C-alpha cells in the first residue's frame, strides 16, 4: 500500500479514538463545565483531527474542525462561558464532526449544508461573547515559499544589500547566522555568488567581552531573482531577534548608495529590540527582557551569566503542575481482527481435540486416579482458561455503542420536539465485538421508538404531573454468563387497548382473543405491526419491532418487554457473551445427539405419567407446580421420528421462551453438560428451521444445536417441520 | 548528511507523517508522544541536531517542553522547530519566548519541512 494511504488509514483509526475522547470529554463537561483539563482534552482531540485532516487535504473536515476548535479555544481561555446552550452546540458539533470523519473515511457524500449551518451557529456563539477575534485566525498556510522561485520567470534580477545584525536572542533560540546566510546565498543568481562582509567593529576589548552577547553583523550583497519579501523569508524565524534591512539597489557597482533607495524594513524594532516580544499578551516567561537590558547597559554585573537559564525557571513548573490528574492511559496493541478470529478458531479446535482425548481415555478404561486422567483434567482446565482469555480479546465495552445511542436520543429529541435526558449505566460491560456491531441497528430502533412513541410531549407530561424532561435509560450488566441490556423510558407505557385494537384491525389476532397483558405487549413484536397512527419520519421507516426481535434472536439473544401504564416501558435484551462458544446440554433425541443451549433451560425433570395431560389433536400439556406447560416432542418436531405415544421414561427440559412463557421439550435422555464450539450451518449448509448451528462432539460426531425459540414457533405454527430430512454424520 | 531528529507530537498520524517525510531523507528520527515523553526520550537518545515539537499536547505542552529542553546546558543551542496549525502570531511569539527557533505550519509539505530543518541545522 502507498505509505501515505497507510498513514491515512491510521489517521482514521486515530480519529475514532479522538472522537471517543471528545465524547467522553463532553459528557464530563456536562457534569463539571468549568474543569479546565477536560476542556483542554476536548480541544486537543479536535485540534489533532484538524491537523491530520489538513495533511490529507480533507478540506471540509479541516474547515469544520477549525470552527469547532475556535469555540473550544474561547472556552479554554475563558472568553466563552460554558452555558447550556454552548454545551448543546458543542455536542451537536461533535456529532457532525463524527459524521464528517466517517464520510471522509468511507468516501461517501456529506451534506455540506449541515456542517455549514452548524458553523454559523458556532460563530454566533463567539459573536455573543465579545469580539470574535478567533474566527479571523484562518488555517491559512503561511506564504508559500514556492512563489519566490516562480517570481523569477521572465527574469528581472535585482541587486540587494542585506544588512543583518543578530541579537543575542537569536543565539539563545538556537538559530545559527551561518545557516541563515547560507540560505540567503542560495537565492543568488547562478554564477554570481553573493558578497558577504562581516563587520567586527563592535567587538570590544577582550576584557570587556560578554560571551552571552552578540557583536557581529553582516552585510551581504546579492543579485537575485527573488523579491524582497522572498529574501526576508529566509529570516522568518529570527524576526525580532535581529536588525534586518533589505534594500534594493539597481546598480551593483555602487552598493554604498543602495540604502537610500526603496527600503524594506523587516521588523526592526530599533530602539528596544525586544519591544515586540514584550508586548505580546499571555507571556509565560519574561526571560527575553534581560537580553536587551544587558546590551544597553554593559556594566550590569549579572550579564556574564547566560540570561535565559536564570530567568526561565518558574515557568516550566506551572506547566507541569497543570496536568497532574491525567491518567496514564491503557497500553494497547492493535491486532488485525482476522488474526484474533484465527486464534479463536484454533482454540475451538483445541477444545474439540481435548474433548476427543478425554473420550478416548474413558474408552480405554483407565481409572480416574491414573496420572493420565489427572493430567487430562488439568489440561481441561487450562483449555477452558485459554479459551476464555482468547474470547476476552474480542470483548469490548459497550461504551462506544452507548455513546452512539446518546446521540440518537438527542437527534430523536430534536426531531420530535420532546425534551429527553439519557441516562446510561454499565458502559464498561464487555461483549463480543460482533455482538456490539450487530446490536447497533436494533438498539437504534428501540431508542428511537422510546423517544418517539414511549415518551409523551412536554405538555402531556406536565399535565400528568411528571417532569417535562423525559428520561431514556440504557443499562448494561453481566448476569449469569449473559449480558443484559435494558432500554427503558419513563413515558406513558403501552396503550394496551390500542395495541389490541390495532392487532385486530390488521388481522393479526381475532377480536375475541383473550390475551394477558404480557401477551398484548408482545404483539408489538409481530411482523406488520406498527402503532404509530401517522408514520413519523423518525421511527416509521418500515422497520418494526419484529425486525428488532429477529436481529436479537440471530445473536442468540432474547428480548422481553414489560410496561407499566403511566410509568413507562422496559425492553430487556439478554445476549450471549460470545458467538463462538455455547454452554450446552447434550441430549439424545431419537438416534441423534442434540445440544440445547443451557441458557434456555429452566429445569429438567422426569415426568410422572399423571403430570401429562393430553389435549385433543394429539397435543398435551405438562402440569408442573400448578401450571400447565405445552409440551413439544423434539424428535417429531425435527422430523427424526414419529410422534411419541407417551412420555414414559423420557426427560423433559423446561425452557423459557422469548415472550416469557414456558414450554416442555421432550427428549430421550441426557448425556452430558459441556461447552461446545459453535460451527455455523448457514455458511456451509443452509438455514434449518429449529436449528441454530452445529458442533463437533468429543467422539468426532456432529451434533445440532437447537434453537429453542424457533422450535417453539414451529410447534405453534402447527405441525412439524418435515421440510428437511437432515441426515447426520457419524 | 544524516541528522538526528527528535519529533514530539501527541497525534500518531502526525508522528507517522513526520517519520514518513524525514526517514527517506536519511534522517534518524526518534519519536515521542508528549512533552514529558519528549524530555525522557531526549535523555536516552543521541543528542538530536533538531527537535520538532507540537504545541497542544497532554501532560506537558510544547511551551513547557521547549523550556525543559532549554534549561539543560547541553541543549541550549539545539534548534527547536514548533509544529503549529495556528498561524496566529501570538502562539509563535509564545513559542519563541519559550526558546523555539522556528516553526512549521501544519499541514506541512515535505519540502517545506525539510527546508525548515535545513535552515536551522547543519
Number of helices of chain B: 5
**If classified by CATH, what would the architecture of chain B be?**
3-Layer(aba) Sandwich
Q: Domains counted in the coordinates of chain A: how many? A: 5
Overall structural class of chain A, as computed from helix and strand content, comes to alpha+beta
Spans of chain A of at least 5 consecutive residues whose pLDDT stays below 50 are 130-154, 251-328, 532-542, 718-730
CATH topology of chain B: Rossmann fold
Q: Gap between N and C termini of chain B, in Å?
A: 9 Å
Give a structural overview.
The complex is a heterodimer of chains A (730) and B (122). Chain A is built from 24 helices and 23 strands. Chain A is of the alpha+beta class and 730 residues long. Chain A folds into 5 domains: 3-136, Up-down Bundle (Four Helix Bundle (Hemerythrin (Met), subunit A)); 151-278, Alpha-Beta Plaits (2-Layer Sandwich), CATH 3.30.70; 337-388; 398-576, 2-Layer Sandwich (Heat Shock Protein 90); 581-716, OB fold (Dihydrolipoamide Acetyltransferase, E2P), CATH 2.40.50. Mean pLDDT of chain A is 76; it is low at 130-154, 251-328, 532-542 and 718-730. In chain B, α2 runs parallel beside α3. Chain B has helices at 12-22, 35-44, 62-70, 89-98, 110-120, and strands spanning 4-8, 28-32, 50-54, 80-84, 102-105. Helices cover 42% and strands 20% of the residues of chain B. The N and C termini of chain B lie close together (9 Å). Chain B is built from 5 helices and 5 strands; from the N terminus they run βαβαβαβαβα. Chain B has one domain (4-120): Rossmann fold. With 122 residues, chain B is of the alpha/beta class. At the A-B interface, α1, α2, α8 and α14 of A face α1, α3, α4, β5 and α5 of B.
